[in-house]
């Protein structure tokens, strides 16, 4: 039986904080003009891979989202290098960015439920 709050969960939470700060303040890519929110980080048990789920503010166009994800995934090695300097871990995981659209899906469901309650 696993612990409820094991090491990989704590590292994932810390990575989420650090990656959000790096994207906001240290990533100086002029192609990214949106606010990017790191909503979740999932780390493998051996800490070699991290899935970073991000959402973009003011971006509904799927083409723009794909372009931004490509930019983020190309800058993943730079972000990883900065994480090496910030965090004291033996293994810094390889980072892969994914789009998280759960906020928009939840908002859509909320509007549907509001429409049903008014009838």
UniProtKB/TrEMBL annotation:
Signal peptide: none annotated. It is found in: Cytoplasm. NCBIfam families: rbfA. GO terms for biological process: maturation of SSU-rRNA. The keyword Iron does not apply. PROSITE patterns: RBFA. GO terms for cellular component: cytosol. It comes from the Bacteria. Transmembrane segments: none annotated. It comes from Buchnera aphidicola str. Ak (Acyrthosiphon kondoi). It holds the Pfam family RBFA. Belongs to the RbfA family. Monomer. Binds 30S ribosomal subunits, but not 50S ribosomal subunits or 70S ribosomes. This is Ribosome-binding factor A. One of several proteins that assist in the late maturation steps of the functional core of the 30S ribosomal subunit. Associates with free 30S ribosomal subunits (but not with 30S subunits that are part of 70S ribosomes or polysomes). Required for efficient processing of 16S rRNA. May interact with the 5'-terminal helix region of 16S rRNA. The keyword Nucleotide-binding does not apply. GO terms for molecular function: ribosomal small subunit binding.
């Amino acid at each position: 039986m696993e612990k409820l709050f094991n090491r990989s969960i704590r590292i994932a939470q810390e990575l989420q904080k650090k990656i959000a700060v790096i994207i906001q303040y240290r990533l100086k890519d002029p192609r990214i003009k949106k606010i990017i929110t790191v909503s979740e980080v999932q780390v493998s048990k051996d800490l070699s891979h991290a899935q970073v789920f991000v959402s973009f503010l003011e971006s509904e166009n799927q083409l723009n989202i794909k372009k931004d994800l490509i930019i983020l995934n190309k800058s993943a090695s730079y972000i990883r290098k900065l994480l090496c300097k910030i965090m004291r871990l033996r293994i810094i995981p390889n980072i892969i960015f994914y789009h998280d659209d759960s906020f928009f899906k939840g908002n859509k469901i909320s509007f549907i439920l509001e429409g049903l309650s008014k009838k």
